[in-house]
Records
---
Amino acid sequence: GLELLVKLKSDDDYKDIPVILVSTEDQKDIILKAFTLGAKNYIIKPFSINIVIKKITEALPKYFAKN
């Protein structure tokens, strides 16, 4: 996940796409690193559909407002 995030954020064609990482990893240092690398949000597995909807809703208006 973090490797893909780095690749996306370093590519001019994809760097502005909001990324929400989904992982079983719940260590604070990993989560902070994801945000530092450009993730818009982070979802820890297992998760409920309500959490996914909330995280997507939070990320998308910010993305569309920029364009």
---
Amino acid sequence: MIHRLTPLFFTLCLLVLAACGADSEPRSDRGGWGRESATMPAVEAIQARYGALPLQSRLNGTVRAENQVLIYPEITAPITRVAVQNGDYVQRGAALVYLRDTQFQEQLRQAEATLQINQADAKRAEATLKEVQARLERTEQLADRQLQSAQELGTLQAEAASAEATYAQALARIAQAEATVAEAQEALRQTVVRAPISGYVGQRDAEVGMRVTGNNPLFTLGSLETVRIEIPIADNLIGQVQEGQTALISAPQWGDRVIEASISRISPFLDAATFSTDAEIDVPNPEGLLRPGMFVTVDVLYGESTQAALVPTSALYEDPNTGRLGVYTATSLGTEVPLAEPETYDEDNPPPLTEPTPMAFTEVEVLARGGGVAGITGVGVGDWVVVVGQNLLSRREEARVRPLTWDRVASLQRLQDRDLLRQFMEKQQRLAQESYAAPADEDAATQPREASRDTVTVNPQQASLTP
């Protein structure tokens, strides 16, 4: 029995000695704070400000080209030549696609031949009419001098009326033939599909040899100098979002860049299924940052809240045990322990951590949110509130604090927003690819997709920077 316990006892002794050694000496790599610093949580905090909160609503928008149109053929025929490629800029009237025109040229020749025949018939009818009218005129003169019988005069008058009717009929046939020729010329003209506007060509779906009909889109055409962003407006925002209000447009691939524009127009009609309407934003696009079909984030600024204490939304923390919403504050910083918010933040040389300082959870009421900032009650202006590391404080009464700047917190929140949006867009693209590659049979099409387990909910205003 003693022999079996000896290795375990020896191991326990080593662990105890190691722990005692760790407690007896401070660790230089922890900044010289000794044993307590090795387990003391470190958080990052910022000072609450006072002011009015800009009210805004974050919406998702879709980019459309100016005058974006789908190009369809007007006749049914095979494609013989495609004159443009994706990305080409074309002027209005430029040829895009050529369709086989043999049949339409033959129809035009037949129509023109019929027209010529009718024109010849009309000339004969006109000549006959003139000859009969001349005879009738001489007969009327002789009848006036009692040199011609009334019977012969009546016969010539009937003949003249018949000649007039024949000539009128010939003219009608000419008009009909001319309409047929015009129709054939129009059909032949439609064998060349031309650009209705000037703009860029995209989404090519035309190949030589394809037989296309009026239901087959060939290209998408639009101008990129100015684009239109369409955003849905829910019914609860219709009274707040109005034309002329500022809209801040951003996208994950732009980094911190934001395009400022204004709401151009709002549809007065609500969709009966979604109870929402559409707002449009016209945006100059000289650098080509906005591409048709692109998803962007649009922050619509529609007013200001009342004056209140302002904190970053990342400071808001919901206690998982009680469900209470609040913030953690460093109660002694700024009062018992002097500390000032740094003017700048250097990632390579961040501000040092403070000594362990008391922490307190304060329940708050959110008055308004907007732009990554929340106006709250329950916290005083100048109080240090924790924005990173709240989950480390649930069972701690003290922590070491690193002060942050408001600009630093804003950049961190934007970074996380972009990460969330990128995850959402990657998921949407993955679902689209899986849907495109799904088998055509009914059984495979009805199987649930595994990707539905990865659903990412994007709600940047409630996103937390807590690791």
